[in-house]
Structure formats: C-alpha cells, structure tokens
Design brief:
It is a single chain. The chain contains 14 helices and 6 strands. By secondary structure, it is of the alpha+beta class. It has 2 domains: 179 residues, H-NOX domain (Alpha-Beta Complex); 70 residues, Winged helix-like DNA-binding domain superfamily/Winged helix DNA-binding domain (Arc Repressor Mutant, subunit A, Orthogonal Bundle), CATH 1.10.10. The longest helix has 19 residues. The protein starts with a strand and ends with a helix.
C-alpha cells in the first residue's frame, strides 16, 4: 500500500492553520516534509509525518474546537470555494467530485460511503501499520457538517464515532434528497454547457496530479501490459482509487462490463485481487 499522501493537502492545512492562528512553521520543524514544495502537483509526503503535523497543530484542542477547525478548513479550501460557485451542481455530482479528490490524496485509506441513504453514511479507516490521528478524524466531522450546507443550503446533523484509525458518521438530512435532486437537475439543464466545462476542468486538474504521482496513463498501461483500450481505461481508474461502481459511472458502462474487463486484466497481469492489481499497476 502507498506510504505517502498528497503534499497538496499540506497547502490546504497551512491555509486552515493561518485562518485559525496556528503555527504551521513549528508543526513541520524537523520533518522531511518541510523540504517539500507543497503547492506542486504530484509532490508526496510521508503519511506518518502528515499525521504528526496534525497532532502538533491540533493535539491540544478539544473535540468541539477540532470540529470548528474542519468547518474553517472548508471555508478556506480553494476547491470547495470553486464548487460553491456552481449553482447547478447536483449533490450526486459533488459526491463524485469529492471522492475523486480524496481517494488519490489518501490511497491507503479504505472508504465506505452512501451519501444518499437515509441516513447518509461515511466510514473510513486507516490500516494498521500507519500512524492514526484523532485530530484528523475530528476535523473530518467538521468538514462533513459544512459540505451539505454549501450544496443543499441547509444544515445537517452528524452522529460520528471517532478513533485515531477509524471514522464512522451518520448524516441526518432535514429534507428529502430526491426532491432536491430533481430541483438541482432542473437547474442543471439551464446551465448544462458551463457545468460540463467546469467538470471537465476539475477532472483535468485531478488528472494533472495523477500524472505526477506514479499513476500510469491509459496509453502506457495499454502498451506495456498489452491491454485493450477498454481494459486500460478500467485499469487506469482503478489505479487512481476508483471502485468498480465508480469506474462504471465514469465510463458510462455497466458494472458487469467493468467486471468483465477486470477479469481479463487479472488474467493478463497474473494478479488475483483488486488490491494486488492496484499495487502492481502503481509499481509498474
């Protein structure tokens, strides 16, 4: 599994720290990541050092203060600010964008989410062998409290169970998401062209980061592993952290079609599980 996380996240943490009056310089002192250009796409830092920074910055704060930091973080996060301007963005599209940003940044985390259940669910886990961080998990609670307000225009109630290695949250909405989905989609039809362009720019932004983080391109996978174009497109998305369902939605095909491609990829690469395959692709 990947031992590193995106250095770009430190840029966002630094912005949050400045907003909250915390000393980022002291938090990174003596760590190797202090020498990394955090703003450069593709730069990586050791996950354990990232967790140490969070503990140095926030370890003395109460749970309520950590949640407020999470809310502050999203208020100064440039990606969230950009999304907030897209009035036609539906909650489902936002959830897809959020996962596409988060998964490449923290490839070693395991994710389980269904934002559109009743209540919504988000769970993530840091595997054993990696440094845990309760401050990071509590900040996530605050982020999760703010995001629905940005998208839905109303607050939600969050029931969260947090430890240093695991985060489980139930999201209680005040109104029916299906009705809001219909309203958002009606608005989206009026702004379809500019929204398509905005989504295209966002996904290209993410792809630019992928290109420098060891994720092979579709063309590279097709050529080096002797995959078909369709198989290479699936392999590329799996290497970026997408699930089978994510791949199907992204490619506009059924999950069974993705599974068929995946079986052929296993046969050609000699791998027997998705985790082993992703590790193989990233090493390749």
């Amino acid at each position: 599994m990947a031992r590193e996380t995106s250095a770009k996240m430190l840029d966002f943490v630094a912005a949050m720290a400045r907003e909250a009056g915390l000393d980022m310089d002291a938090a990174v002192e003596g760590l190797a990541l202090a020498e990394v250009d955090w703003s450069r796409f593709g730069a990586r830092v050791d996950w354990d050092e990232f967790a140490i920074v969070a503990e140095r910055l926030c370890g003395h704060l109460s749970d309520d203060e950590l949640r407020e930091l999470g809310r502050t973080y999203f208020r100064v996060h440039p990606w969230v600010a950009m999304v907030a301007q897209l009035s036609g963005l539906t909650p489902r599209i936002l959830a897809d964008l959020a996962m596409r940003v988060s998964r490449p940044a923290h490839r070693h985390w395991s994710w389980d989410f269904d934002f559109f259940a009743s209540p919504g669910v988000l769970a993530l886990e840091i595997p054993d062998g990696y440094r845990g961080s309760r401050p990071i998990m509590m900040v996530l609670v605050g982020e999760l409290e703010v995001l629905p307000e940005i998208v839905l225009g109303e607050p939600v109630e969050i029931d969260a169970q947090v430890s240093s290695h695991r985060f489980e949250a139930s999201i209680h909405y005040r109104s029916a998401l299906k009705a809001r989905e219909r309203a958002y989609r009606a608005g989206q039809r009026l702004t379809a062209s500019p929204l398509r362009e905005a989504k295209h720019l966002m996904f290209n932004w993410l792809a630019a980061d992928d290109a420098r983080t060891g994720v092979p391109s579709v063309v590279e996978l097709q050529r080096s592993l002797e995959l078909t174009r369709a198989e290479a497109r699936v392999a590329h998305r799996l290497a970026r952290g997408l699930t089978v369902s994510d791949c199907a939605a992204d490619l506009g095909v059924s999950r069974n079609t993705v599974r068929t491609h995946l079986a052929r990829i296993y046969s050609k690469t000699g791998q027997r599980s998705q985790a082993a395959l992703v590790s193989h692709l990233l090493r390749h």
